[in-house]
Design goal:
The complex is a heterodimer of chains A (about 250) and B (about 55). Chain A is an all-alpha fold and about 250 residues long. Helices cover about 75% and strands about 0% of the residues of chain A. Classes of the chains: A mainly alpha (about 250), B mainly alpha (about 55).
């Protein structure tokens, strides 16, 4: 029987080869779903009884928050793997998550701020949920800055991983902020433990939007990880094979 | 759909500027986060190909 080693699938060439056929289908599905979410969320879903039309920002703001926090947790898992097993793929994934996280958290802050103006009367308030999300944005930035600050790659990666693990506390704070402190920010509309607090006519497009953003997230993460792989594999035989097939 | 209905749909009861800007910023930055790594990746591979091209002379 052929010796099977699962670790071989975590190697750079295997990861690169396995993910190549996924990119185009993921791009097509996420684009089609985004169009569907756009039509449903902007034109078909009914206006909210309290907020009227402006609530339609929920269909981008909430899915962005979901993937932004999930991205951090995914980054923290790989930071842990990196510290314990020191695998290079975990390092690549951690940095890819940090790059994506900067833009995702910025988008959560921007869309939240745009929604806050007509509903609260202010672009920004120093509320626990908003402030902790701002801290998350700075943690993502700090990971990328720390990476550049150290000359030694392995040392930089371990220090970044430690920062990521410590920063995971902020994800808990972001999630629980509206329960722990008085907040202008509304509570969660969706929860695993209780029934959703929004009507089905708004819930279904919201669930579709969340699914669409997760598919997008997988695609974006794969693209960034593949770029990290190429950057660190210069001169390797497997990469030269890839280059050889390039048109 | 008449022109008036279309304009009404775009204005969103006076909140159109907020709603459309939130959606457009999202679309723009999310697209950028796909194009950017794709472009960097492609350039890195092309640079490697150029460097490894057999010398014509």
């Amino acid at each position: 029987m052929k010796d099977f080693r699962w670790q071989q699938w975590l190697s750079a060439p295997s990861f690169y080869r396995l993910t190549t056929p996924l990119l185009l289908p993921l791009a097509i599905v996420s684009l089609l779903l985004f169009l569907w979410v756009g039509v449903w969320g902007l034109f078909i879903a009914p206006p909210d009884a309290v907020q009227g039309q402006v609530y339609r920002i929920i269909f981008v703001h909430v899915p962005l928050s979901f993937i932004c926090l999930s991205n951090y947790l995914f980054m923290a898992v790989h930071a842990f793997v990196l510290i314990i097993w020191r695998t290079r793929l975990a390092e690549d994934i951690m940095y890819a998550c940090a790059r994506l996280g900067v833009i995702l958290s910025l988008l959560v802050l921007l869309t939240g701020s745009i929604w806050a103006k007509p509903t609260w009367g202010a672009w920004w308030v120093w509320d626990a949920r908003l402030s902790s999300m701002l801290v998350l944005f700075f943690i993502y930035l700090a990971v990328l800055a720390l990476r550049e600050a150290y000359r030694g790659r392995a040392v930089a990666a371990r220090i970044c991983a430690l920062l990521v693990l410590v920063g995971a506390i902020d994800v808990v704070i972001v999630h629980k902020a509206v329960d722990w402190w008085y907040s202008l920010h509304q509570g969660s509309s969706l929860s695993i433990t209780r029934a959703p607090s929004i009507d089905a006519s708004m819930l279904y497009p919201l669930l579709l939007a969340i699914a669409c953003f997760y598919i997008y997230y997988i695609l974006a993460l794969l693209l960034w990880v593949r770029y990290e792989l190429v950057q660190r594999s210069r001169g390797r035989a497997w990469l030269m094979d890839v280059v050889g097939t390039l048109k | 759909m008449t022109m008036a209905t279309l304009i009404q749909a775009l204005l969103m009861e006076g909140h159109g500027a907020y709603i459309w800007s939130a959606w457009l910023i999202t679309l723009l930055l999310l697209s950028l986060m796909l194009w950017w790594p794709y472009s960097l990746h492609r350039s890195a591979l092309k640079a490697l190909k150029e460097r490894n091209k057999p010398d014509a002379s």
